[in-house]
Amino acid sequence: MAPKYSAGDIVRYHPIGGPTTMVTSLGTIQRVLTQNTPNTGDSAITVKASMDHPRYEIRNNHTGKAAGIAEANIEGVEGRDDSLSLED
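Structure tokens predicted for Hypervirulence associated protein TUDOR domain-containing protein:
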């Protein structure tokens, strides 16, 4: 299964608590992660990811902080930032 989203997508997502929480944020996808990736986001943690279960490094448009977010926690694309290059 290929990732649904790509670097540069501006997405609405659930930063905490999963897809059933009411809290949402707006952020820009910095990287698509399809393998275990160290130093992800501002907390520099290792994110577990695969092609079947991709994660996205999303920088929050309000706080400026980045975190690794599961695909299920993303509601959808709200826009595009074409200044970001394609994933590594």
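Residues 9-80 form a domain with the SH3 type barrels. fold (CATH 2.30.30).
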